[in-house]
């Protein structure tokens, strides 16, 4: 039995799920490809040296994930969330969950930044080089992150590919960790975490009697929510109208592509037809998929793939908790509709419906069910759940927020940044979107064997934005 060190942090249920879904043939890391304007031929080498030196001083980058096999420790308190999440309704906060079969983040005693920051030979195509690196799984016995510096062959630019395991960081947390090794910039300080009052040995084992009615109401509410999500998941598997192009036998290979469009063009479309910027960005994906399927000969008639739209439940300026706090919306992309404005209207209606229901209901909130599974259940069941992801959704479309401030590394400005989402088992494509410095960056991740023509889809995104603009002014 391996005891849990005092300075470790038990993984939240969703983090544990991501950790156990992964296999070496199917990595579960997210990433970002940042492109910098070089101020000298040696800018790439200097950037790698800075990243390694700064990583040593970032506590979050020293954290490895260690599997735990220990029974309940009374000093940790009793976690009543096994099956029922009671603490939110009552204010009752158990100290630690049952760790048996779980995992924890802990400081690696032999952390060596040079094992994580690597300088590569000059490359001609940043995206092609990054795709080959994205298919390599992270080492699970040391802090699960990497930074790859890719100098450009022309000496005028270099790229940095950051990779973070999803169990170590979600999108916002990964952004904070990456920003910590870039040049310092003036950003708002994270809100301090409220201090918990001191408790005795038995404190937290049993809730106060006066809180029992709230506990019961909370239990019933959570059971109802879990049943609602389960029923919605079952309904989402009915009447599936997807495309074979979005299905893949897991090969572990990766190909990435990126495209940037002007944010002003997106705002022009939004102002013309209403809705939100996110509605337009999702509609652009739907139109690009239609164009891509038709051009590759697969056909888009009758195709309306299910898109999972992750929703962060973390406040952007809050550093704690470190774990993933995600829900999501599930919607059908109107790929089969030939009218670009009608596609946008369908997306708006679907997103408004999802927002009215909230991120805690519906099939897209399936991630919340992780809270109701004990650690041993994650260890034994998540590999099976990972194989079933294809039954729930066909494509991931996620938005990753970035600061509007300029970022630099070694004095070299960051000019482009392409977010890269994990690719679920059995799926061929994932799309991530970020807005940075007046441009929208689409990052595409695909199974390299299933989607050899990913650049064609990237070009289709640009064409779709132009088509929507033309439809708005006609």
Automatic annotation (TrEMBL):
Xref: Pfam families: WS_DGAT_C, WS_DGAT_cat
Keyword check for Lipid metabolism: yes
EC number(s) reported in the record: 2.3.1.20
The name this protein goes by in its record: Diacylglycerol O-acyltransferase
Pathway: Lipid metabolism; Glycerolipid metabolism; triacylglycerol biosynthesis
Domain of life from the UniProt record: Bacteria
Organism in which the protein naturally occurs: Streptomyces ortus
Keywords: Acyltransferase, Glycerol metabolism, Lipid biosynthesis, Lipid metabolism, Transferase
